[in-house]
Design a protein that fits this description.
Layout lengths: L1 E4 L2 E4 L7 H7 L7 E5 L2 E3 L14 E6 L5
Length: 67
């Protein structure tokens, strides 16, 4: 499946078909993140059930500490 993640077009295995699996793929499942799918913010409680489709545009924002 071809998707755009944070502006980068990438080919994902067909097994990554939900937002929660995408987060696992990028090792972000334990982080606090905001996900936008096709210009719509997806509630954290919906990540496991929100399906990905070919051509989706995903923006992932995660917070990094520092000073």
């Amino acid at each position: 499946m071809k998707v755009v993640v944070n502006g980068n077009t990438m080919e994902l295995p067909d097994s990554i078909n939900r937002l929660s699996l995408l987060l696992e793929h990028f090792n972000l499942e334990e982080k606090v993140v905001i996900i936008e799918q096709n210009l719509q913010i997806i509630d954290k409680n919906s990540h496991a059930e929100t399906m990905l489709s070919d051509g989706d545009r995903i923006e992932i924002v995660h917070f990094v500490g520092g000073g």
